[in-house]
Amino acid sequence: MRSSPKAKDHVFESTHSKQSKPTQASNTASLFSGLPIYSALEKLDDSLLEAAEDLGCSRIKAFWLVTFPLSRGGIIAGCFLVFIPTLGEFVIPSLLGGSNTLMIGKVLWDEFFSNRDWPLASAVAVILLLILIIPIILFQRNEQKQRESEG
Fold first, then answer.
1. CATH superfamily for domain 20-150
2. Coil, strand or helix: which one is 22?
3. Is residue 12 scored above 70 in pLDDT?
């Protein structure tokens, strides 16, 4: 079967929409989230799930009460591994074309190399750095508080 010209136009429009650039950038980077989540789940002791089921938890309740809290570190690390590359992405917005959606990595690239406005590009780079550092600092403080309360 052949597709109609309208269907082709719809596909073309969807690749150049405002949502397609961040979505595609996060889809590309989401491959990096699998390893820390797998690592966290691999360390999980199966006897904890068996104990939760022996104490009357259903499998779903055991997942939320045992598995999820113990794998939270891997989930957060995976989120960071997706968030950081997605925020600085400039290639995917260029490949998808169009200038309707501004992404900070693309703005940084344009200011450095197209406009040659180095002071503005440096300011954007500092903002990008702050956006990346603040969640990491908050995560480290949260982990430190949890370690202090446990020990």
1. MetI-like (1.10.3720.10)
2. helix
3. no
